[in-house]
Specification:
Strand order of the largest sheet: 4-3-2-1-5-6
Order of helices and strands: HEEEEEHHE
Distance between the termini: 47 Å
Structural class: alpha+beta
Number of strands: 6
Number of helices: 3
Shape: rod-shaped
Oligomer: single chain
Radius of gyration: 28 Å
Length: 156
């Protein structure tokens, strides 16, 4: 008994769906694996896996998993479960430098005008402004994250 000619291409395509889907899962897994394997130990990473967002430091990379140290606990995640992966980049400390520059300019401007009542008043006010502006810059640096999405690549 012969199969109808129209059904053979459908069966052939249906048989290819399984390996193609498996190949896509393997390529996604290998790209996460290759990205994570390039990271230095203790890198700061953020992942979304199974609908949960976790941030922490990379502890260990296994064959098909990674271990992440979060502030609360240490968790091992399957690489296949990772939907999105971000890596913390270098911080330029722009906030600190801006605050320091602003404070230095204000300190200098206060030194140009003398005070007859208290000769050290402008210096003390300038130092307070310099310290305050530097502290605000540090707070801005700490509050801003410099995360780069590595998986999936942008545009996918």
């Amino acid at each position: 008994m012969r199969a109808p000619s129209g059904i053979l291409p459908v069966l052939w395509l249906a048989g290819m769906g399984g390996p193609a889907a498996s190949l896509a899962a393997q390529s996604a897994d290998s790209s996460v694996s290759s990205i994570v394997s390039e990271l230095p130990a203790a890198s700061r990473i953020r992942v979304i896996a199974a609908g949960k967002r976790l941030s922490g430091h990379l502890v260990q990379l296994g064959q098909d998993s990674l271990t992440l140290r979060t502030p609360e606990t240490i968790q091992t995640l399957s690489l296949q479960a990772i939907d999105t992966l971000w890596v913390a980049g270098r911080r330029g400390h722009r906030g600190l430098l801006s605050g320091l520059a602003f404070g230095a300019v204000m300190f200098g401007l206060l030194q140009l005008e003398g005070s007859s009542e208290d000769p050290g008043l402008n210096t003390r006010m300038g130092l307070v402004l310099l310290g305050g502006a530097t502290a605000v810059g540090l707070l801005l640096d700490g509050a801003s994250g410099n995360w780069a999405r590595r998986f999936p690549p942008s545009g996918q």
